[in-house]
Amino acid sequence: MYELAYSRPESLTEALALLAEDEGAQALSGGQTLMPVLRARLAMPSRLVDLQRLPELAGIRLVEGGIEIGAATTHAEVAASAHVRAVLPALADLAGGIGDPAIRHRGTIGGSIANNDPAACYPSALLALGATVTTSRRTLAAEEFFTGMFSTALEPGEIVTAVRFPACQRAAYIKFRNPASRFALVGAFVAQLPSGYRIAITGGGHGVFRWREAEQHLDGGGAMAAITEDMLDLGHFTGDLHGSAEYRHHIAAVIVRRALSTLA
Amino acid sequence: MTAMTAPMGKFGQSVKRVEDSRLITGNGRYVDDLVLPGQTYAAFVRSAYAHARIGAIDISAAEAMPGVVKILTGQDLVDGGLFALPSGWNLNSVDGTPARVGVHHALAVDTVRFVGEPVALVIAETRGQARDAADSVFVEYEELPAVVDMAAALGPDAPQLHPDIPSNRAFTWDIGNAAEADAAFARATRRVSLELRNNRLVPNAMEPRAINAEWRAYDGSMTIYLTHQNPIGMRLFFMMLLGLESENHLRVVSPDVGGGFGSKAPCYAEELVVAFAARAVGRPVKWTAERTESFLTDAHGRDHVTTAELAMDDEGRFLGLKVHTLANLGGYISTSNALVVSYMYATMLCGQYAIPAVHAVVEGVYTNTCPVDAYRGAGRPEAAYVIERLAHLAAREIGVDQAEIRRRNFVKAFPHQTPLVYCYDSGDYEGCLDAALRLADYAGFEQRRAEAKARGKLRGIGLSAYVEACGIGPSKLLASLGGGGGMWESCEIRVQPGGSVEVLTGAHNHGQGHQTVYAQIISERFGIPMDRITVVQGDTDRIQAGTGTYGSRASVGLSAAVKSCEKIIEKGRHIVGYMLGIDPGEVDFAEGIYTSAATNQTVAFTEMAGAAHAASSFPTDKLEPGLVATTFFDPPNFTYPAGVHVCEVEIDPETGVTEVVAFNAADDFGNVANPLIVEGQVHGGLTQGIAQALWENAVYDPDTAQLMTASYMDYGMPRADSLPEFGLAFWPSPTPVNPLGMKGCGEAGAIGSPPAVINAVCDALGIAHVDMPAAPEKIWRLCQERQEAL
């Protein structure tokens, strides 16, 4: 790690000011990606602005039609939340399966989606459920928020404050774990919303995406069991040491079928 | 806790480890915890290339950076008289010529030979300053072609790593009898053959390597704090390589050590450089490896490519065995590796079977990879994997059950002289097999397979009957095979006037539970509570002599302890004889009390200890005061732990994921001093072995020789939630080679389990072989092929 300054502001205003006054400043929200990057000296921010104590980013609230989760909420808090379990149990399951206990007690939902790792779990839930992201400046639909791997619509100095999800009992997340990192080699979040089925795939390599062909197949009354990788563009997938593009492509269809079969 | 309630030790009891509460509450003291007056910190400049000629090294910018104390390059070390790193074992090729040892400078001089090889060292006032400056050392590299694959390295077009070593071949060594093996194959009516790869592993001790070295110019002496499995052995290495005057100019201290698995047994380049640097700057220098450095430079394990062939008669009786192994040495020969790939490996290729004719050839090959050395099992896992995979294939070939083929070939009488130097001490292989089969409900397996099939899963069962060699010794045999001898262990026991006991051992505990087991055994011998016994280790100023801990050598160290106990008790008999005015021959000792049947008087052990020091109740011209005893125990033979592992897997054919759903093991560790600790050792070993079979794999890019699995994002460590409950049973055949009848248990789990897992995977899929690790995509593709074949 290179030498840097560290601030832990007590309010959103203070945090925004710190980020605004220093171009090299970097927001820190759990640090489960950023800290290893810093340790490996792959980044050189002049200052870390720790968002963990901001009251504006805290808490899980029931709201009309769904639930709002403060950006600084840890995965462990989401997994254990009675509110989340009641209105969106699939999201609690997802949070409870991220990394390991140490990671779940440090990593946050805001940090995860702002980083938008192409193998992260949360982005698939936001996309499948049609969640909205509230930032220090605006509100964005998930589809606008995620713009490609490791990239989002966030502008410099803009902070995610909360994520709002619709209530949904008919939803499920299955992660096919990378055996080393336990990130998603492929992950699939499926949901049946009033508007129809939505399926989001993470881990493909280029960033989270919706499998619209499968959604249309289901909305058109097609059988769940008839969903195969033939309906899925192989171009969404890249390969690495842990699985070829072809294998990930195949696994995506398998876990989507399995996730769908669990819907009540 | 008071003395009244302090527990008494007893051999064979599951006593909880006395060291754990200190370690798990953060009160351990590791090398990195130690800060010395005037402390400086070191950071290495490492090669990003796997193979390159070193040009100019520009340190001017780095030297000018804040806090920089000194920068050293390879040439500085050569100029300063530092010797190159030695191979610690003299191995001869078939033609009688000695192994060709590539010159291994502690900092590369002209050429770098693997990614991460150290090129320069920066010493600075803080760790951060040292790292910052290391980033500013500019090294010119002329990149050379790199080679990872051993067959390619031996080929005509391969880049040559060392100037005087053509074909990158360090040695071609053999064992056994080629003519007899050929004759056996000519006679045989059935045979099976196999080509396999034993995957390369990264050891991953929890505590990374670390050293803090302090030079005292006024008397030319040095103290080295080092996380190591063998501090006393390292004193000799460092003394010689640094050119220090004598042993007493160097003190080596290994405080708490957070795991080793063999990776803290070699003499490493980095540690030697830091010691040299401490002398060069005249201030203490500390270096603690970062995890990336551990991945790149901790000696890796395994990495064999082997072809093996087993000859049989029609009943499946094993007649002959031929094995040819390419052993990847990495860029240099690490300290013990010439031993590991030869006498620790090929000697064990017969496994538990009476195979009359064997011939094995091992070629040691240099490649542009991290040097390889001992890793949990060190050669024996590689041997067990070869013979137990062949046994599985033999059962298929003959058409008999996996257990039956083993039963037909077991060694049945002991001692058993193998055709491969070693002589197995004791065992009951068939009894152990039956115990394992009962534990695993082997008879009920087909029902479980059918039940799994109904759920869409492919269930398989695999056996592995391993035998290994522990408690390495005797010294004379080791010397005759190419070692330096000296494979005894020492133990000094000091009884204080108040009756408390200090035990000084040259064995080194880094997770094995020595504090507990030494105390347990000595407590029982002396009849005093365990908390009166302190085990002292890991400091050459306190321990006179020792050889460290590896290869389950606790049986050797404990044997020395027991013999020292006997000497103390015997001296006590004489003291008590004087105290009671009777002949020492009439003094009995049991449960901490000396008694005289003749006079009906008693003297407690602690009273005797007081009397030994008071020296007033006996004539000191006939009996020396004090109560200290030392023993050097040189074992007459290795011990040969053995066992049978039974693994059941379920494979999801749609994803290729293999799950170990049951794992049972019956082991012969001889007498077991502390079943709780032994079970823990077995759990750890099984975990590492199962992980090798399913997840762990060090992968180098075939073209650039970059380590692609250099972090936990890509290197698959085992996790508790991926493992089943282990079913364990002991089936002891006590060894006659030491007074405790103990054989050792540290490596067994990692030796027996990989073939058990792969045999189960092959059974589930109905295939002959799949290389480790049985990763999901590989297994999925095999399932696809199987589906197409149906």
How would you characterize this protein structure?
The complex is a heterodimer of chains A (264) and B (790). Chain A is α+β, with helices and mostly antiparallel strands. Helices cover 32% and strands 25% of the residues of chain A. Chain A is built from eleven helices and 14 strands. A five-stranded antiparallel beta sheet of chain A has the order 4-5-10-6-7. A four-stranded antiparallel beta sheet of chain A has the order 11-12-13-14, sandwiched between helices. The N and C termini of chain A lie far apart (49 Å). The model of chain B has no long low-confidence stretch (mean pLDDT 95). In chain B, the strands form seven sheets. Chain B has a seven-stranded mixed beta sheet, sandwiched between helices. A five-stranded mixed beta sheet of chain B has the order 7-15-14-13-8, with helices on both faces. The longest helix of chain B has 27 residues, at 554-580. Helices cover 29% and strands 23% of the residues of chain B. By secondary structure, chain B is α+β, with helices and mostly antiparallel strands. Classes of the chains: A alpha+beta (264), B alpha+beta (790). The interface between A and B is medium-sized, with 20 and 24 residues.
